[in-house]
Every structure is written in structure tokens, then in C-alpha cells.
User: Fold GNAT family acetyltransferase YjcF from Methanococcoides methylutens MM1.
Amino acid sequence: MEGFDEAFSVRKAVFIDEQAIPEEIEIDEMDGYATHLVLFSENEPIATGRFYEKDAKSYIGRICVLNTHRGTGLGRILMELLLQKASESGYNDIYLSSQMYARGFYQSFGFEEFGETFDDGGIEHVWMLKKSKN
Assistant:
């Protein structure tokens, strides 16, 4: 899994250490075939996200930025790169699972909520979808 170790170091700091999500649910089967995007500063991983395809659908997820680098626009850069990757793969409709506090961020990229909220790792989430303009 190219890039996974670097991606996981950021995910561990954000999701496991900060948000107390159990490690056994933070790492999942999608990690084995997802494309992991990692942003670096001075050779240190500082932000990550992943893109994968499953059941003929395109997903973006595990988007996080180290606390020391938040508010710098890295999340937006990461999303733009992941959306580009999804588009290049031929997928127009893109799904993601959002923590409730982050919905506005994803809405700024055209994602809309659907379905009921659900608990994932002790944190309330909602599914979101960015539909193709075609």
C-alpha cells in the first residue's frame, strides 16, 4: 500500500489520538486498495485523504489535517486533489461519510446530505453525495 504508512501517521494523530476512535475500526479493508494522498511539510506528513471505488461507486474519505496545520487551506487542497482523482477515474457521483461538524466544508464542494445520521467510532456521521452535473 503505497503511502499508507505516512497516511496512517496523520490519521492516528487525528482520529485515534485526538478523537479517540478505536484503531481497530480506523483501519479497514478499503485501506488495502484505496489511493492514499498525503501532503508533506519539510518531509513530514501533515494531511491525508483517500479515494477508492467499491461496488461501482466512488468514495472519498479519511480526510484529516494535523492540528498544527489546520486553518491553512490544506483541507481544501486535499479535497480538490481527491475530487480530481475521482473525476480522472471516470466517476461522477462521489460519496463520503462526514462527521457532523464538517458538513459545511463538504457542502462547499457541492456535497449534499442524504439518509439518517449514524454513529461511527462514537462520533455522529452522515452520508453525503456529490452528484454529477451531467
The first helix runs from residue 4 to 18. Strands lie at 35-41, 44-54, 57-65, 94-99, 112-120, 123-130. The two ends are 33 Å apart (CA to CA). The chain has a mean pLDDT of 92.
